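PROTEIN SPECIFICATION:
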Amino acid sequence: MTGSHISSEKKSYGNKSSIIVKTININDVAYKYDLIKMDIESAEGTVLTSLKKSLFLNIDIIVEVGNKSNANKIYKFLKKNNLKSFSQKKNFMTVKYSSDMPTSHRDGLLLISQTMGDKIF
């Protein structure tokens, strides 16, 4: 196989084999870090929306957004919780609209940070 994914989050094709992977709850470990990078094959929205809002105050999160559905889920969560994010798709300007969100790896990354100004660079 040339790739991996979480079967409930992403469609696949071709020959497959399945393995069970032990996981932990991100809320149990996230507070230990000040930077987290996520590329979890379209499960980013599920994981980000499970985080406690207080964790976002001390952690910067770099996210590869896997698809439009994931982008919308993340965007709604960030807006609802009044959390700042910056899109590589928009030269790391503040995400103001859902159309500013990256929707695949081709659009670049999303940075969620409460310590940055209105533009990173």
User: Anything to note?
Assistant: The first helix runs from residue 44 to 48.
